[in-house]
Design goal:
heterotrimer; A mainly alpha (409); B mainly alpha (422); C alpha/beta (241); A: 409 residues; mainly alpha; two-stranded antiparallel ribbon; two-stranded antiparallel sheet; 4 strands; 65% helix; elongated; B: 422 residues; 2 domains; 66% helix
Chain lengths: 409, 422, 241
Amino acid sequence: MREFGILYRYELKKIMQRKIVKIATVIVFALILGTVCAELSGNYYVDGKVYDTHYHMMKTDREYARKLNGRKINQDLIMEMQDAYRHIPENEREGRYSLTEEYQDWARPYSQIYQFVNMVMEKKTLSDLLAWKADENELYENLGRRIEEEREDAFLTEEEKAFWREKEEQTEKPYTFYYAEGYWKLLYSSYGICYVLLLYAAVCLADLYTREHSLRTDQLLLSSRLGKRQLYWAKALAGMSFAGMASLILIALVMFEVLFIYGTDGFQMALQYAGAFFYYSEPVSVGTTVIIVYALILAAVLVTGAFVVMLSELLQNGTAVLAVVFGMVSVTMFFNIPPQMRLASQLYAYLPGKLLSLNMGGAFSLRLVRVFGRYLTTWQFVPLLYLLSGAAFLLIGKWAYGRYQVSGR
Amino acid sequence: MENFGTLYRFELKKLGRKKMVWYTFVILLQIVIVMNIGDLVFRSYYDEFGREMSTYEGIVQRRDYDRKLSGRAIDDDFLKEMQKAYGESKVVAYEYEEDKGDTGLATIGSSHISSVAVEDGRSPHEVVEDHKRYRGIHTYVWSVIGPVAAQSVDAAGFYQGRRDLILADCLEKQHLTQAEQSVWKKKEEALTIPFVYTYCEGISRLLWHVNVMNYLWIFLSAICLSGIFAQEYQLRTDQLILSSRYGMLPLYLARICAGITVVLGGTAALYAAETALVLGIYGADGFFAALQLCVWQSSWRISIGGAVLVSFLVSLTAAVLCSMITMFLSEFFKNGIAALSVMAGVTLFTVFLEIPARLRGLSMLFHLLPTKLLREEGFTDNRLYFIFSHGFNGMQIAPFLYLIAAEIFLWAGYRIYRNRKN
Amino acid sequence: MVIMMELTIDRVSKQYKNKIAVDRVSLRLTKGIHGLLGANGAGKTTLMRMICGILKPTGGTITLDGLDVQTEEYRARLGYLPQDFGYYPDFTGYDFLLYMAALKGLRRTDAKFRAKELLQLVALEDAAKKKIKTYSGGMKQRLGIAQALLNRPDLLVLDEPTAGLDPKERVRFRNLIEELGENSIVLLSTHIVSDIEHIADSDVIMMKAGGLIYHDRWDGSHEDLEAFYLKQFEEEGQEVS
């Protein structure tokens, strides 16, 4: 065990000494931390003139939203919102009404409620929404209808629909509003952060094993006592733990940065409040979802690390390994498998890049997996899948490593 | 240069012997194939009556209907016909019902008409048939001015509405200067109005797919060429090469030419495959149709086919630039993985990154990158690059800039290559 | 307890697609120096790689006191210096030895002590804290020799160990090998015949086209080894000068 620990530390040292790893780490950290809140920098222009700063606009919206903390999105609040928006002159309602004084003075404090109600009722214009007779029951019935439509479009089985209907009954209605912009921000940034971290893991680990062959140190390593078994595992563990630790540190810094700027309130806001998740009937808060999502990112980085370890030994070519990973990441960014192809699209959704797309096909997909008689949602099932896949990748890599022979030089 | 041809052929041979080059090309080719026929094979299509058919049958059906409209000017008469076909039949209820037997209406989902209230005496079948007949023009008008206006607009309103939308977009998103606005207005006035509707699905798809094709040839370049100089260093053959008579400039140029040849060849082959598939499935109609039928926001006075050719030519110059950059990085880092990481990382990064238009200079420079320029937006960006008081848009100036930049990377790379001896 | 030291190579072969690199070689090597001579392509390096367990034979077995070549226990008793071996450019000489010691299963304190001892032995103490990429070819070779000796191996396999060493360093090396040969099996391949000739009581093994053509003690009473060696490779009708 002690020997293993020593080997592990040396392998970690070898990874951290590499110039490419150092540069990639600096770039990734700077990139993510520098851009995650970049939209708050600079000014907001209207007709070429400075109207406000983005940061001040965020603060203003935050103050307004906080005043609504804890209020139920019910008949009273909907009517209040409509009354506030009715102050906007009729002739301005189809144009850039957000620039009017009336909007700034009356309607803006209710903008988040407006967005939610408009999302549910799918009104095309502000006038249409104001013409609608506010009805809390109609709002939530419409929501329910749209949720059912999403279930149809997802080609769910009857058992799956029954599962979600049961979950829907557990969600508290009407929703209670909380300002939770920090958590929404973290959630919507997770997709990009995940991609960057997957590529970062690939760059750092692509030649973890192939480098020994190119440097010709493999002869010494493979002929040493621990070189055929312990060394493989020490290397793999060092590689994966490096990628994992770097990702964890970065995630922590991102969370700190975002929540410091936007605020930590709203952990308990219902996930279903957001347009991107309205269909997801699990009674889970946005704060919990953020924790789940970033834990999934970590899991994705680790399984990608294991995959890269395996490829590194199978392909014997670091460039090829990187090409495969970049290729897979790119394909998941641009292509989808039609939902009618149930199994293929469901498996595709489990790929690390696709999983964090956070929509119908991703971690919060409506599709379920039956494991030992119990239905698991995607985000519950995937860690198990990644654990098994990761172990399989490492074992395949070990097999390839054991078979390697030094010849042809 | 003596022996240049021999050196060039050997460098090509070295690249050709690399399995990764072939694997990469084959995989990218498969992506092109799947991109075009994937939907045909794996998706089903349900028509307005709820009947299931293959996607290809759906395409053929739409094509046949749309072809019947080809050649018609989008004028008041045409718009009125379209509005009559769509206008009075309000869909008042989407009901989930069981199959109605004789009517052939089945439950598929909310996007299909299962219950239609008609106010002009047409039967649901007639309504749906009319929808199919005018679907092409309806979709086009709707995409320009929205569903509400599409139902009542006349020709003058349509064309003015289009201009107003483009102008609003230009002012808000592109921050056009006065000079640019007046150039844009002149371009708009030069367009032939009314537009002539033409079925142009195939040729339009070639233009829409340019964005994805970008990424394919960039990856081809990055994967195939990232090790071209680095491997000499890793294999320790650089000592032999640099000490030989033609090992400096002649070999360097031969290698560069070989790299560019491989990438250009691969790019051309991918585009050829893409073109064959798309035109084979959708037809080659519409090559000479106005670009505005495909990219309504564009003010270019060019056909869709012309725009496709322009995109292809610009792609080729961009491929030269990307090959050059990859090879430069390969020499600079002496590490294929580093070169590939930078190329692929920057490419993917540009997918997520956007520079606000208010940072005008930076934004315009950013939008000259192949991944930002070579898409439909390349034909809608009205910002101009002024050279000797003559304004050029991105698509016009990019090829020259790409080649100049490629030359800069060429000589910068040579400096590093030459100094390796030290 | 007396530990027997015998390396048994029993009808070992290595065949590639269209070539037999090593053809049914059988040897029994005990404590002492065994010089392996042969032309380029004779199969020396292939044989040595098989003995070190980094290349699998197509046929035959290799054991050290009954331990199969693929076992960890075998590798625990092995020291190997490959021809043209690699290193980590950013490691210092000392770091490299500690890393190799870890791979050989030495405890940390023992590793530190042994590393320092060997650096002194190969005259690299002054360069111990410098990065290997700054070393000359000879220094790298001496570092390679040092790493091979870390675990006090019972079986020491050295492939062209004196390549890159100057004459003075070669003499030092020969003396070191003679000492090691008293307690270990040392198999040493070289093109420099004098390296073996001047080591007392060494075995000479000659290979040609994958097979053994000579294996006997070389005690100096024979003719000049180099002349003898060249005679073995004389082609028909041609004199090898």
